[in-house]
Amino acid sequence: MTRIILESKTFLRALQRVLKKEPQLTDDLRTTLRLLAEDAFQPPLKTHKLKGKLAGAWACSAGYDLRIIFELVEVEGKPAILLSTIGTHDEAY
Q1: Which of 10, 17, 16 is nearest to 57 (CA)?
Q2: Which of 7, 29, 34, 49 is most buried, judging by how many CB atoms fall within 10 Å of its CB?
Q3: Which domains, ranges and CATH numbers included, belong to the chain?
Q4: Among 79, 89, 82, CA closest to 56
Q5: Helix (H) or strand (E) run with residue 81 in it
Q6: How far apart are the first and last CA of the chain?
């Protein structure tokens, strides 16, 4: 089941920061977002539910130390993924 990908303003700003520092990650991020849209729980993504202040959100790996925080939502009755932020482990959490 393919999900719609929605990007929050916070995610877009964080993405610009990440790509400015490491532009070589562009292709890896495209692949990660494609996998996320196809099935957010594919093993390479290492998707896991978050606790504490981020309870209700999910995180997936977009590289060695890069994480994407997202929520599973519905838009007009269709499954979607709302991308909240992206960054290193310490930045994202």
Answers
A1: 10
A2: 29
A3: 7-77 (3.30.2310)
A4: 82
A5: strand 78-88
A6: 28
